[in-house]
Amino acid sequence: MVTVAQLSRGARVAKPYQLSRSHLAFRGAPHRKGLVYKIVYMSPRKPNSAKRRIAKVRLSEALGNKRIFAKVPGLGDHFLQPHSLVFLRGHGPKDSPGINYHLIRGLCDFLKPESFGRMNRRSKFGVKRPKEDEDEEKKKKKKYKV
After folding, report:
1. CA Rg, the chain, in Å?
2. Whole domain around residue 58: which residue ranges?
3. CA dihedral sign, ordered 65, 69, 70, 76
4. φ, ψ of residue 62 in degrees (nearest 5)
5. Which pLDDT tens digits describe the chain residue by residue (146 residues)?
6. For labeling, which of 35, 91, 103, 116 is most exposed (least CB within 10 Å)?
7. Residue 145: inside a domain
8. What are phi and psi of 3, to 5 degrees?
9. Facing residues of 101 across strands?
10. What phi, psi does 55 have (nearest 5°)?
């Protein structure tokens, strides 16, 4: 319960809105373009063990040339190298501290698709919808003919 003395000091003031930690570099935008200046490998925190591919990215000059770490998503190789243009989104992996961003496959210079046929969550990984073969369509038509 608030006392009269606390009210007289102006205790009931709304706190200013703060951006979440994972989107600070974006300044309210959902995505940003950036320039890769280094590709490194990093091990996650316990209990996981692997080599996570991390891209060091420099955001545009309008944002003050901020430099951030971003996770390279998906399986398989990629053709990223220094001076590649990439598209970023927020929310990094949970097991890698200090990495608050993800790259988006299929946009800008990050066009290499994954090395396997992904069917689920295709939009996050830049995979096009698979086309059905004409042979399969013909078989379906024959199957239902009487």
Report:
1. 23
2. 37-114
3. positive
4. -60, -25
5. 888 888 888 767 777 776 666 566 777 788 888 999 999 998 999 998 888 899 999 987 767 788 899 999 877 778 888 998 998 888 888 888 889 899 988 788 888 766 667 777 777 776 777 777 656 656 666 666 65
6. 116
7. no
8. -90, 170
9. 70, 90
10. -110, 130
Q: CA-CA distance, 94 to 97, in Å (whole number)?
A: 7
Tokens (6 digits) for 32: 């940003």
Helix and strand numbers, DSSP H then E, in the chain: 3, 5
The closest of 45, 53, 44 to 77, measured between CA atoms, is 53
CATH of the domain at 58: 2.40.50.140
Question: How is residue 39 annotated by DSSP?
Answer: E
In terms of Cα–Cα distance, which of 32, 127, 35 is closest to 81?
Answer: 35
Q: Is residue 7 part of a domain?
A: no
Sorted by sequence, the CB contacts under 8 Å of residue 54 that are 6+ apart come out as: 39, 40, 41, 42, 69, 70, 71, 72, 96, 99
Q: How many domains would you assign to the chain?
A: 1
Place of tokens 């069917």: 119
**From CA 66, how far away is CA 68, in angstroms rounded?**
6
> In angstroms, rounded to a whole number, what is the distance separating the alpha carbons of residues 54 and 62?
23
In a domain, 73, yes or no: yes
